[in-house]
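We modelled each protein-ligand pair independently. The example shown here corresponds to the pyridoxal-5'-phosphate entry; the chain sequence is given first, followed by the ligand as SMILES.
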Amino acid sequence: MKKHNFCAGPCTLPQSVFEQAAEAVKNYNNNGLSILEISHRSDAFVAVMEEARALALELADLQNKKYEALFLHGGASTQFLMTAYNFLDKKAAYLDTGVWSSKAIKEAELFGEIVQVASSKDKNYNYVPKNYSIPNADYFHCTSNNTIYGTQLKDFPQTGIPVFCDMSSDIFSKKIDYNQFDLIYAGAQKNIGTAGTALVLIKKELLKKINKQVPSMLSYQTHINRKSMFNTPPVYAVYVALLNLKWLKKQGGITAIESKNRKKAALIYKEIDRNPLFYGFAEKEDRSMMNATFFLKDKNLSDRFDHLWQKAGINGLKGHRTIGGYRASMYNALPIESVELLVEKMQELEKNI
Ligand SMILES: *Cc1c(COP(=O)(O)O)cnc(C)c1O
């Protein structure tokens, strides 16, 4: 039986994507070769890269020719330093909403002065700071979804300076105006595909601001000039991303997936609030549609609850080690049936104590 996988990343992908990806390893497009053994300069792979880049822009509604899509090595964590290396001259403004933002800040500090406009560290990041002011700076950086704590930015500040966003754990999960950002990046292993690449959506105009020498591999200009093929790209990760983005489009695109994601999130949060055995971690108004974090009020029940969900074929429900408790990650590919089953197990625990 296939498990119900609530893993936070890498995470579940559509079954059809797993099957097509597996087939491509054996025999890509029925041409007698594996996707893993063809040249990245071959027509077959160049077509994969071009389609994946175009589809990423299409799904983000950024086909206005102002943006480029890149699939780069090194995950989101390399983007923490690459953004700063390219664009931080004197001072940048960062919003601190958790471990990932803090890591982005730590890397950027190597390149210039960092102004933390606000932080929710005082409450172990269970909320999103609001009403902060943003100084004039080279750019403002934020994290749209805080994977570990289950908080999410519902809107983004108007700044007058370039806005950069780490969207690793909620890109393509709901309709937002991607045009309000100058640079977006996301590790692929949540809503895009498999680990091994990060998607970058970058406004071309921004490149005019780069006025220093950047090593080739860390330069956005290099990768744009070479259509994301400066060196051997992470070919398999890009291929899986293409399969998954095509799946998303076939589902009806972002509008359709958003309505499913809303239903899943509403189901789990309703149960967290209703069930007297549980409570939620994140402030209600800042709750994430992707990662729901919750605790048992009585820790003595955890063995019983863990046994219940594990026996039911649920995987990956344990919270991140820094906050404990439980975390249900409900990325695009997680079926609503998995959430229904989890709710059923929470109710079963309540009935049987
Ligand atoms: C998972 C995650 C990352 C880290 O991504 P890597 O690709 O492993 O570097 C960064 N930011 C957020 C918000 C994440 O959820």
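The chain is about 35% helix and 15% strand.
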